[in-house]
Amino acid sequence: MIMVDSSVWIDYFNGKECPEVTYLDAILGIKPVVIGDNILTEVLQGFRGDKEYKKAKQLLGKYIPYKIKHNKIIKYSKALFLLPNNHKRHKLVILPHRII
Questions:
Q1: Closest by alpha carbon to 3, among 51, 41, 35?
Q2: What is the Cα–Cα distance from 36 to 69, expressed in whole angstroms?
């Protein structure tokens, strides 16, 4: 399962061309994608128009909802913080099935 960061979803909906959006577009409907509760909130609150909001809500509603627990957020952010400065931080996270 793959959890996609809110910044990638925002770039996706804005039509931005970048490697993360290209990968996301390629896996939608093929690989299982989960959306975190806080990620869903972040993405949906950014829409200004009702039409765009409803379209995004319908699309994002197709993906597996995932309640992100506080301790998992801390553990993940600590892992990102400890990466060397020249290491690219990942915006797409592959989740093992056992934590769902």
A1: 35
A2: 10
Report the number of distinct structural domains present in the chain: 1
Strand partners, 62: none
pLDDT of the residue at 9: 92
pTM: 0.71
Range of the domain at 13: 2-99
How many Å apart are CA 33 and CA 29, to the nearest integer? 8
Residue whose C-alpha is closest to residue 21's, from 10, 34, 35, 32: 10
Task: Supply the pLDDT for residue 96.
Answer: 47
Looking at residue 83, which CATH number applies to its domain?
Answer: 3.40.50.1010
Amino acid at 45: Q
